[in-house]
Amino acid sequence: MITAIEEENSLKSDHEIRAEQDRINLEIMKTGEADELDLEEASKQTAIEFEDSCLEELKSFKTTHLDKVNPEVKDVKSINRALERSLVLVVKQKLGTSEEWVFPHTPWQPGETLRQVFFYKCQVRNKDGPITPGTNIVDHQWLTQDELDTRFKQSYAKSISKFLVSDR
């Protein structure tokens, strides 16, 4: 009973309305009262024909597995790897006498407090553009979130994991 009430009160999509109108037009044409029907409108593609053409197009659609798009899947310098996952840019930067893997950042400015420190999320649109490292940048890599722990120090990884949103 609840199903019947929901069926009666539910709103219909344009496609459902069109399919219903097509059924009504077909009944009118069968009874021979076609003079009431706009023949030009009735001769257009019906909802069922539209569904059939969509299913045919879907069957002919060929997909490619994402790992096969770029054979150099293991190249961590390529942004065209792990296409089904979010990649994060990390840089190996000279910090004092050591070199550490960190997120790209600018030097601390005198008077700057932690209230003025931000991490920005962005999307790369031009995947072919070169990365031009700064003077203190030794190397760069595009890593998945799972790979970050292998590059970062444990304390740094723990602090950044608090604001990273998982892509799984």
Secondary structure layout:
Blueprint: H1 2-9, H2 14-31, H3 39-42, H4 47-60, E1 88-95, E2 98-102, E3 137-143, H5 145-151, H6 154-160
Antiparallel strand pairs: 1-2, 1-3
Features:
three-stranded antiparallel β-sheet, 2 domains, structural constituent of ribosome, 3 strands, Ribosomal_mL46, about 170 residues, about 35% helix, alpha+beta, about 10% strand, 39S ribosomal protein L46, mitochondrial, elongated
Report on the structure:
- By secondary structure, the chain is of the alpha+beta class.
- It folds into two domains: 2-60, no CATH class; 71-160, no CATH class.
- It has helices spanning 2-9, 14-31, 39-42, 47-60, 145-151, 154-160; strands spanning 88-95, 98-102, 137-143.
- It has a three-stranded antiparallel beta sheet.
- The chain is elongated.
- GO terms for molecular function: structural constituent of ribosome.
- This is 39S ribosomal protein L46, mitochondrial.
- It comes from Scylla paramamosain.
